[in-house]
Amino acid sequence: MSELNITPSSTPSSGGLINNKTRLILVLAVMALSLGYLLYSALGNNGRYYLTVSEFFEDDSNIAGRPVRVVGTLAPGSHVIPQGTLDHSFALMEGESMLGAFYSGVLPDLFDNEHSEIVLEGQYQGGAFQAESVIVKCPSKYQAENSDEVTGEPV
């Protein structure tokens, strides 16, 4: 009887297949690109200017037509809504500075609260601010109009 000589006819070559190191590099690259895209899409709108009304008027020449955020409080008596529409015109104020604004849509519930800060996102065009969105910051505290009304006794 003769002995069988069994030898592998071929050995795996590293040229045709992707080895583990290359596969790891490709997976890490795809993950890094995905994370970069998620960060870019999540933080893209947060690069807008965020100004108070008085800061807005200090130098409004470079802001015209650009997306911007402006914060202030609603000027008393300035909120006007034409009958049967969702178009609003109002003014934001901070100190002595006032900014006229327009918005079309439903406003948040606390918009007319005198203690609320209002954040407008939009563009300054033609001497008025055209808001694309309105955000109302909840008032941090409510103060009584008369200090005599506050007794400190439980109700």
Explain this structure to me?
With 155 residues, this protein is an alpha/beta fold. The protein has two domains: 17-46; 48-137, OB fold (Dihydrolipoamide Acetyltransferase, E2P). It has helices at residues 20-43, 53-58, and strands at residues 49-52, 68-74, 87-94, 97-104, 117-125, 128-137. A five-stranded mixed β-barrel has the order 2-3-4-6-5. Helix 2 (53-58) links the parallel strand 1 and strand 2 (68-74). The N and C termini lie far apart (109 Å).
Helix content: 10-25%
Q: Output mean pLDDT.
A: 79
E-strand count: 6
Rg over CA atoms, rounded to whole Å, is 31 Å
Order of helices and strands: HEHEEEEE
Which spans have pLDDT < 50 for at least 5 consecutive residues?
Answer: none
CATH architecture of the largest domain: Beta Barrel
Shape: elongated
Largest sheet: 5 strands, mixed, barrel
What's the tally of helices?
A: 2
Summarize the topology.
Layout: H1 20-43, E1 49-52, H2 53-58, E2 68-74, E3 87-94, E4 97-104, E5 117-125, E6 128-137
Keywords, please?
OB fold (Dihydrolipoamide Acetyltransferase, E2P); single chain; 155 residues; 6 strands; 19% helix; 5-stranded mixed β-barrel; 2 helices; alpha/beta
